[in-house]
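step: validate -> pass
step: tokenize input -> pass
step: predict -> running
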Amino acid sequence: MKQPRVQFTVRRLMIAVAILGFVLAVIIMVKRSREFRELALENADAEQLSQSYADEARGEDGDPQRVARGEQMAAYHRALKAKYERAALYPWLPVEPDPPDPEPPK
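step: predict -> pass
step: emit ->
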């Protein structure tokens, strides 16, 4: 029995390259999405810690600077968490750099 001979035409090579490119793009998007989900979870934890810091300051001596700083940092991490949750859903979109940490209230 004669074996069919596979010919590598330009068309077949272009199709192979297109399929390979699509597969690689999917792999990269899945990886980016996972990394963004991890960053969102880290910021969720930081938000909870900042909020508990503010709650502790309310209960002890009522230090308004500690309360304000805790709430400020909780809001900062809440915004980062929302940013990274959105980036995890749409990993093909560009993500702007994180803003610097906010200055402590005076």
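step: describe -> The helical segments are 10-59, 64-89.
step: cleanup -> pass
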